[in-house]
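Morning. Coffee machine broken again, so started the prediction first thing and wrote up yesterday's gels while waiting. Chain of 114 residues, entered below exactly as on the submission form.
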Amino acid sequence: MLSNYENLDEETKKHLFQNALLTNNDALQRDLMNLQQNKISSSISLQAKLAKELRKISETYKIPELAFDSKAKMRQSNYFTWCSKLRPIIAMFPQTSKVFKDNEIIPYENLCIF
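Came back before lunch.
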């Protein structure tokens, strides 16, 4: 079962860990914790690589940082200009392509990396 841990869905993983807790199986609990920790470590690594790539591409395309302005009209204009320049870059990666959906911003979730 542990050799196929990565292929299990989240609900099955949750039930497996709950059963390990209920049966007081220390070895299984430790192994499951190690597998979960490895997943978190690889997730952080993937996020760091993705952030690095996004930053490099945005610098290549000369995307300016989002500037704050005291005038609301300018803030709105800056925001929409920034979004329109950023949208094609975000669409390049499957992990972030879902962030801009139509004209609505969908919060990025860590789970979309997998």
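The CA atoms of residues 17 and 54 lie 36 Å apart. Going to sketch it on the whiteboard this afternoon.
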